[in-house]
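chain below, 223 aa
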Amino acid sequence: MEQPKIIDDKTTNYRFYLIDSKRLYPSVTTVLNYDKKEQLKGWIKRVGEEEAARISKESSSKGTQIHSLIYEYLMNKDEKIKEMYPVLFELLKPRLDVMKPIYMETPLWSDTLKIAGTTDFIGEFNGVPHIIDFKTFKVDGGEYDFSILETYYLQATAYSVMAFERFGMKIQHMKIMKICPWKYSEAVFDFDVTFNKQLLSKLVAKIKDFYKHCVVFPQIQSA
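prediction:
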């Protein structure tokens, strides 16, 4: 089967995955964050549009770069990350060296949940099957913000369901690896969680809420 096509709706800023001519699913990050628009507007108003745009662009660029460098290290043993981020690499290396990837940066979807997404890592960590998601962050005011951990856990839970549906892999262990790559603030934090009914129930509730309130989906173009 061909890879799903990613569709970014510029009107709503939602992301969708076109699986085939009959299936169009919202991304799991869209589903989990669509109701945070007011918070985002408040932040933009507080820092100003220009500064908000700069911060968002910088954070996105840094996140993409770190993901790419980790991918190259794990898949191709490319140590460019060591050259570019020597301090961060020393923090990451003990973790990366016990990771055995099976799938990385792989688009997935669930026909049961009717959502899709791209997982960072499916494989083994210390010999145990894991879903691992890499999250970059920046120190703000000298403190680390862990307030949105549950959202990350729900995202990993979605990937676990997708991995089971797509590959028949039953993965119970999930890890969120929070990475601060900014110079003089380098840090790596691990947050581990096990797949459980409570997280799955919260995820299902969020999906139902999204489908209830998001009435505008991009039109599937026929061939």
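Residues 95 and 153 are 19 Å apart (CA to CA). The longest strand covers residues 99-110.
thats it, cya
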